[in-house]
Amino acid sequence: MRIAITAPSTAITPDDAEAVQALAAMGYGELELIFDPQCFASHGHFAGDDARRLKALVDMANRSDIDAIWFAKGGYGACRIAAQAVAAMGPAARGKAFLGYSDQGNMLAALYRDGFDHVAHGPMVSDINRDRGDDAILRALDWLVSRSPSTLAPELRHGTRYAAFNLMTLSMLLGTELEPDLAGHMVIVEEVSEYLYAFDRAFFHVASNLAARGAAGMALGRVSAVPENDRPFGMEAEEIARYWCAKMGLIYGGRMNIGHDADNHVVPFGLHRAG
Amino acid sequence: MRIAITAPSTAITPDDAEAVQALAAMGYGELELIFDPQCFASHGHFAGDDARRLKALVDMANRSDIDAIWFAKGGYGACRIAAQAVAAMGPAARGKAFLGYSDQGNMLAALYRDGFDHVAHGPMVSDINRDRGDDAILRALDWLVSRSPSTLAPELRHGTRYAAFNLMTLSMLLGTELEPDLAGHMVIVEEVSEYLYAFDRAFFHVASNLAARGAAGMALGRVSAVPENDRPFGMEAEEIARYWCAKMGLIYGGRMNIGHDADNHVVPFGLHRAG
Question: What is the structure's pLDDT at B29?
Answer without folding.
Answer: 81
